[in-house]
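User: Sequence recovery, please. Input:
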């Protein structure tokens, strides 16, 4: 009986080892790139990447992109030909390592920028991945639209007198690149505005102008007594790229 159990145990180990031996390690580089800008990397907290089996939902790999936003001249100032790489060795990405026995239709979900929840966008794609067939270089690039907007003033639930107050916001591209007058991401090309809503209806809208500080925009607004939602948005009429942040205030 003991001998029989030992044989069964050895057979089980052999079968397990046989199954494992068929799995092939496969590397897949995944990158998140801001719309009309650069790659999303360590400087803004990266992008969350989840790779799963599209048919079963089983997660195969997950992690955060890390590295630099990439070479500005290469990405933003150079005409690109077919097959030309946009990335360099230091460019941000997440290298997923998968152990595959058979081809898998992979679901790739990207959440970015990971540390800025009010600006976070979910984008996804699907692709077949074959055992032992690495996807490297630029790898799989998923585009993330938007701007990262942080309303600096007024503060959340701030009580203000019924007089002129400042609306101030910090605005950058999703990769963290600056938005500024006459810069590469020229603020003059964007509509940057603040909107006041009461009971869901727009009651006022103003333009915001750049302050002395890069990527910081400000304007004056005056509202009557009541409860308001303040929105700040950036819109690029050429590309359709859009970002928004909002807060709530009380006018006494």
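Assistant: Recovered sequence (252 residues):
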């Amino acid at each position: 009986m003991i001998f029989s159990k030992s044989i069964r145990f050895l057979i089980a180990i052999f079968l397990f080892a046989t199954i494992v031996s068929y799995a092939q390690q496969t590397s897949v580089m995944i990158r998140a790139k801001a719309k009309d800008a650069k790659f999303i990397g360590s400087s803004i907290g990266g992008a969350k990447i989840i790779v799963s089996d599209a048919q079963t939902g089983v997660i195969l790999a997950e992690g955060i992109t890390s590295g630099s936003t990439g070479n500005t001249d290469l990405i933003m100032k150079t005409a690109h030909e077919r097959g030309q790489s946009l990335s360099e060795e230091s460019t941000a990405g997440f290298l997923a390592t998968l152990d595959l026995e058979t081809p898998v239709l992979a679901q790739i979900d990207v959440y970015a920028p990971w540390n800025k929840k009010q600006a976070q966008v979910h984008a996804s794609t699907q692709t077949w991945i074959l055992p032992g067939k690495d996807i490297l270089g630029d790898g799989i690039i998923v585009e993330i639209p938007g701007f990262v907007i942080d309303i600096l003033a007024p503060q959340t639930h701030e009580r203000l007198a019924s007089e002129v107050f400042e609306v101030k916001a910090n605005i950058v591209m999703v990769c963290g690149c600056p938005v500024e007058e006459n810069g590469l991401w020229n603020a003059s090309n964007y509509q940057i505005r603040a909107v006041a809503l009461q009971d869901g209806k727009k009651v006022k809208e103003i333009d915001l102008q750049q302050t002395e500080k890069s990527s910081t925009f400000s304007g004056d607004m005056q509202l009557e007594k009541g409860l308001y939602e303040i929105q700040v948005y950036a819109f690029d009429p050429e590309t359709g790229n859009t970002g928004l942040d909002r807060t709530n205030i009380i006018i006494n």
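The chain has a mean pLDDT of 94.
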